[in-house]
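In these records, each integer encodes one residue's backbone shape. Here is one protein:

___
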Amino acid sequence: MLFRRLLCLLAATVATALSAQDLPGLKVTFVAAGKTDVRSDRLLALYVPAGQSPTPFLAAVPFTVKWEGDLQSPLRGTFKLGAESSGKFKLSLNGQPLLGK
């Protein structure tokens, strides 16, 4: 159990030390009670049951989460973006708000 905790702590430290360019996928930043956990995500999805922490490295208190990344498409086209949330959210593209609640 101690080894597992140390491994998780090491992984969090390494992920936090990496810059946005070094992380594959989306950069996700969790902030709760003045502490931050940064990692990469392959998908933009999150489910946190009431009273639970969004990551093992932060307290189970209200939190914010921000995903950042680049959309790259070799084809031109029309794309539909949507969101489903029970909390507040904002979706922006190039700094322009697209969706929000």
Observations:
- The beta strands are 26-32, 35-41, 63-68, 90-93, 96-100.
- The longest helix spans residues 2-17.
